[in-house]
Amino acid sequence: MRLEFLKRLCEAPGVPGAEEPVRELFQAEVAALVDEIKTDALGNLLLHKKGPGPRVLLDAHLDEVGFMVAGFEGPFLRVVPLGGMESRLVYGQRLLVWGRRKVTAVVASRPPHLGKEEKAPAIEEMLLDTGLPESELRGVVAVGDPVTFPPFFEETSEAVWAKALDDRVGLFVMAEALKRANPRVDLYLSASVQEETGLRGAQALAQALAVEVVVALEGTLASDLPGTPAHERLACCGQGPELRLSDARFLADRHLTLGLAALAEKHQIPHQVVVKKKGGTNASVLQVAGGAVRAAALSVPVRYLHAPVSLAYKKDIAAAIELVVAFLEHPEDVLAYRWTYPA
């Protein structure tokens, strides 16, 4: 499995509301594989590969958690978060401000010599230090400019370290499955916007589409560090993609989700079925916002989600691609599956 495309996706900037670089990369990669391409007014990219069978949507989101410049305080910047982040993970970090040119900034931190701080301040209370005088800073940065963690991508023999694996890994899985599969469905693909700020892109998509089945492709929280209580271990790296039956916003279509699990077992694809009350994906909106739709979420476990750098295992990414391909080529095996109460 070659990861050059994943590298380009992860290194591109794309905060909510400013996802254009990522959308352009994704569209260029898959344009020759589809029959129709549309972009809506919100920025969602919708692709259609015509085929027989049920109307199926695969969705992955373009945006990453980040920040937006909110104002100046002398030679310093104030920002607001775009998406959910813990302030302690941001404090003291290097960031990139995407103004008239790229500007490096560091989140101002208190030196330990002055005594320990009780806790990191809220992100809105933090100051960004660019090392530029105020007059020069105001010439290259404006209120509203996006701010991201700096690009990062490295491979080990088993894993990938990168910025923005949530959800560039979902986009990569979708693109690779499209390249490999011979779909037996009428296939729609959405590269959606503003997931990290309230699933906004998916809400617009759901009202514009008339599909029968949705599978959201995501990077999900891997809670498998040593010391984690057994009941808090949800998705674990190295055990295949997560098929969730629930999260904080979502009750999956039980038959569809367990049908995907049965397909994975049939093809000996590693996977893990998870029940949790944490997190959320576009599946929760796509399931109901445009009328009742069968929906599932298929996610690659990612450690250190919404942090400057996160980690995913290559074999989990490969298994996710394999399972999506199997679904597209054998949809009847999944869609006909029915769970029942025992007699």
From TrEMBL:
Annotated catalytic residues: E195
Database matches in Gene3D superfamilies: Peptidase M42, domain 2, Zn peptidases
Residues reported to bind Zn(2+) 1: H61, D166, E218
Keywords: Aminopeptidase, Hydrolase, Metal-binding, Protease
InterPro entries the UniProt entry points to: Peptidase_M42, Peptidase_M42_aminopept, Peptidase_M42_dom2
Family listed: Belongs to the peptidase M42 family.
Name of the protein: M42 family peptidase
Organism: Thermodesulfatator atlanticus
